[in-house]
Design goal:
Chain lengths: 527, 349
């Protein structure tokens, strides 16, 4: 218990939520250990922590998805019965999930009313619902057309629908789980406006995130979770970035230094690359032209689902493009297969470590040699039989060199933590000295320490002459690491823009669809 | 009561899972035997004696184990790659067809060449029977469970046509059966008194060969990778279609060899009922062995023992021999449950 932590002055505002001594275990894993915190009326409380720190578990307990092994939760002074979602909703708790839970084929109004109507009613309460919805939209600045089909809405609008859905149920306490993950910077600003007007009306908000600048911008108080424990609580006014990062990770985090170098020869040239979409849909990739040089990191920004995955699939050899050319370090790619790209010197760090990056049930050393399949010295008898000794020696070398922390190389790769699994993939990829590296969301879901390691490795590769295409949804990461940035929207790609003097707002304009803004920026810079 | 995934599975658990499963299934079977009205002790003794009680009993069990060892391997290899080959029965008949086609006089060689030759073309026949399902799966994404299962009936009907028509042995006095395999091709038996024959050695060697392939070779690596995570395997540069084709040829080939072993060893000639579902039993054998090639040996011996033992138990105790099928089914169910328990732990709350 940290009784001293809950004594930070919050005036004489009423406490709306009190979590006392909550503990939750999954097998031998303690996801939440004796967590106590309070939330006051009209307050925005940040729940900060790395992936796996226990944020989502705690909120799922609050919302009744899980039952706590120990501890109690009081909402407006009433104890919540454990494990009952409807009791939590009735008490005024509402949750906006990270992944939207909307029916795309139904209208906004239908989505919002879903589950609130009695099973048997003589007539639907549509009229009243519409009025209430209009009322709420006006009050909180959440403009959405109630009759629009959710499938036709943008991501930002869908999130508004999610929030309206919660408000419609008269929630007084809102839990927002990583609400900005899918938004452009402009949409984030809009969301923050809404949140401010909601707290002004006396609602209370728990804001779950690991993005420090957002927490500093919107919250009043920060609770930091680490490995399931509440390790600190601080008023946002007294916090800064480094302080929060240190509390979250438990030690100081060194950020790697970026140096801009003179680009060398081209290592990747894309000419009018195109991939058709499913019939009746827009093309996944349309007329993509891009050149990546040696000693250069190009950042690829964009809201998720605008063609980044399709481009990554093509560059990994997992998808054959319908049009255009690909040239790797001067060699034309004619045979679009994973092995072709590997042999031409493409290092591929896949988006999903579990489905593409590793075969979880196979051993760590087996995963380490997977891209060296067709090479000596691992195969004997004309490449038919595995040389276990050579393969294990090779694995030992990589494990040592890349600091993959594991009990033994003989254990299944799925038992590795996210950071160590990514180190395994980096080891496999970088050991081949690739000329071009496709790094697709290389730090997603990793903790700060592992992020620094991955970035350090990529910058090393750049120094040693590789060209890198870094795909990320984190603008901070892109602006810090990349030399130039391109933005994708609806399968099209902007001109590259230098990251010097580029602001997140500029990138946000392009992410929202104005790709020609890149040309303006470039000509402006030239003038 | 809830299931929670285990972070890792201790080795002793993996090893003891099949043993515990079999013991539990025997307890359930004991209930059935009592229900059928036989004294438990006597029935157990009759079953054990029937399966392993004499040299003759042992050789009969081994004879019975031979084809299901091979079909069990066929299923184990395919299932490891998540290629759901349910058609070992049909492939077994195709192997027997190939051996009958060339082994009844069309080709005559010294036995040292003739026997390997028969196994080779039998394996080819079994493999070819899987070609159509593989192409349909690779090109059109047709589910192989359906195609391999249904092909069984097509092949069986085709065998029926041949045996009643062009391939009918004129010396068979009207029975629908093919001409016998020539003497050079007949698999030598252990001794004139026993039926167990060279096929057993072939099956044992096949198990070792499959184990070696899966564990130590590039093919095995690729097959395992495709089985565990096709997406990840493809990303690493493994051709899924090529691997599936290879697996199908190995799997169909093993089932085809089971057919050769039966037609040239146990029976001597092809009839259209010469397999009492060896292909399907192979699936159970493979499951009971948790798809481990060496485990298939033990699992085939266990199943053969149950079948042979239940025959004599049925005669001695006057209870239905169908009890053998129930016992095998129970063993499989218990195996599935105990395999699940190696992955998950039971938590009461």
């Amino acid at each position: 218990m940290h009784p001293d932590l809950t004594t930070i002055q919050r005036g004489d505002r009423m406490t709306v939520l009190q979590i006392s001594g909550v503990t939750k275990r999954f097998g031998s894993l303690v996801a939440n250990s004796d967590i106590s915190l309070t939330l006051a009326e009209g307050e925005v409380l940040a729940l900060l922590g790395e992936n796996g720190a226990g944020k989502t578990t705690l909120m799922n307990i609050l919302f009744g998805h899980y039952t706590a092994d120990e501890g109690t939760i009081q909402v407006f002074g009433q104890e919540l019965p454990p494990g009952q979602t409807d009791a939590a909703i009735k008490a005024g708790v509402g949750m906006v999930h990270q992944h939207f839970t909307l029916a795309e084929n139904m209208t906004v109004l239908e989505n919002i009313m879903l589950g609130t109507e009695p099973l048997f009613a003589l007539r639907s309460a549509t009229g009243r619902a519409k009025a209430k919805l209009r009322d709420m939209a006006e009050q909180y600045g959440l403009a959405v057309d109630p009759d629009a089909r959710v499938g036709d809405l943008s991501v930002g609008e869908r999130q508004r629908v999610e929030i309206l859905k919660v408000l419609y149920r008269d929630a007084r306490i809102l839990i927002l789980d990583e609400p900005t993950a899918v938004l452009t910077p402009q949409e984030v600003d809009q969301l923050f406006e809404t949140l401010r007007s909601m707290v002004a009306k006396g609602l209370s908000i728990i804001f779950i995130s690991h993005k420090l600048h957002e927490i500093l911008a919107i919250t009043d108080r920060v609770c930091v979770l680490r490995r399931g424990e509440l390790v600190g609580e601080i008023a946002t006014a007294e916090a800064d970035r480094d302080r929060l990062a240190e509390m979250m990770v438990g030690r100081q985090v060194k950020r790697p230094d970026v140096d801009h170098m003179a680009p060398g020869a081209p290592v990747l040239e894309l000419g009018a690359l195109g991939v058709e979409g499913p019939s009746g849909h827009r093309a996944e990739l349309a007329n993509i032209n891009l050149t990546v040089h040696q000693h250069e990191i190009i950042g690829l920004a964009g809201v998720a689902g605008n063609g980044q995955s399709a481009l990554a699939r093509v560059l990994s050899g997992m998808q054959v493009p319908n049009a255009g050319t690909i040239r790797i370090a001067g060699d034309d790619v004619t045979d679009f297969r994973p092995t072709t790209f590997m042999d031409l010197g493409v290092g591929r760090i896949p988006e999903d470590r579990h489905t593409s990056g590793t075969v979880g049930e196979m051993l760590i050393w087996e995963n380490l040699i997977s891209e060296h399949m067709r090479q000596a010295p691992f195969w004997r008898l004309g490449g038919r039989v595995i040389d276990f000794a050579a393969a294990r020696e090779f694995a030992d070398k990589l494990i040592e060199e890349y600091d993959v922390r594991c009990l033994s190389k003989e254990m299944p790769a799925r038992l590795l933590s996210g950071g160590n699994m990514q180190k395994l993939i980096l080891a496999r990829v970088l050991d081949r000295k690739p000329r071009f590296i496709l790094a697709n969301q290389p730090v997603r879901g990793l903790d700060e320490g592992a992020i620094a390691t991955v970035h350090e490795r990529l910058l090393d590769a750049k120094r040693n002459g590789a060209g890198i295409l870094l795909v990320s949804e984190d603008l901070d990461e892109l602006l810090r690491l990349a030399d130039r940035i391109v933005v994708m929207y609806h399968g099209e790609m902007s001109e590259p823009v230098s990251t010097r003097e580029l602001s997140p707002r500029d990138v946000g304009v392009m992410m929202a669809g104005d790709l020609s803004y890149a040309r303006q920026l470039n000509s402006g810079a030239a003038a | 009561m809830r299931l929670e995934p285990r972070e890792n599975t201790p080795a002793w658990m993996v090893v003891s899972a099949p043993v515990i499963a079999i013991l539990v299934s025997l307890v359930f079977s004991a209930g059935l035997i009592l229900w059928a009205g036989a004294p438990l002790g006597g029935a157990a003794v009759a079953l054990a004696k029937g399966a392993f009680g004499s040299v003759y009993a042992v050789t009969e069990t081994l004879t019975r184990a031979t084809p299901i060892m091979l079909t069990g391997l066929a299923a184990a290899v395919a299932f490891r790659a998540r290629f759901w080959n349910i058609g070992a029965e049909g492939q077994l008949y195709c192997g027997a067809l190939a051996a009958t086609w060339l082994g009844t006089g069309a080709v005559v060689m010294h036995p040292a060449l003739m026997i390997p030759f028969l196994f080779l073309i039998g394996a080819l026949g079994g493999g070819l029977a899987l070609l159509l399902p593989v192409v349909l799966k690779s090109k059109l994404k047709v589910d192989e469970v359906v195609t391999t299962l249904l092909l069984n009936f097509i092949i069986l009907l085709f065998v029926g046509y041949l045996l009643d028509g062009p391939w009918k042995d004129p010396m068979s006095m009207g029975w629908p059966q093919a001409e016998p395999i020539i003497d050079e091709g007949v698999l030598p038996a252990a001794s004139p008194r026993y039926r167990v024959h060279l096929g057993l050695i072939v099956a044992l060697l096949s198990a070792v060969a499959v184990w070696f392939t899966m564990r130590y070779t590039v093919w095995g690596y690729e097959i395992r990778a495709v089985g565990h995570n096709p997406e990840g395997a493809r990303f690493a540069g493994i051709s899924i279609n090529m691997t599936v084709l290879r697996v199908a040829m190995i799997s169909g080939g093993l089932a085809g060899m089971a057919g050769v072993s039966e037609v040239a060893g146990t029976k001597g000639y092809l009839t259209h009922e010469f397999s009492p579902g060896f292909g399907y039993t192979g699936i159970a054998v493979a499951m009971l062995a948790n798809l481990h090639p060496l485990g298939v040996i033990l699992s085939a011996l266990f199943m053969a023992g149950i079948f042979v033992g239940a025959d004599s138990m049925g005669r001695a105790m006057n209870i239905p021999t169908y009890i053998a099928d129930v016992m095998v089914a129970l063993a499989m169910l218990c195996m599935l449950v105990s395999l699940m328990l190696t992955q998950y732990r039971l938590k009461l709350r």
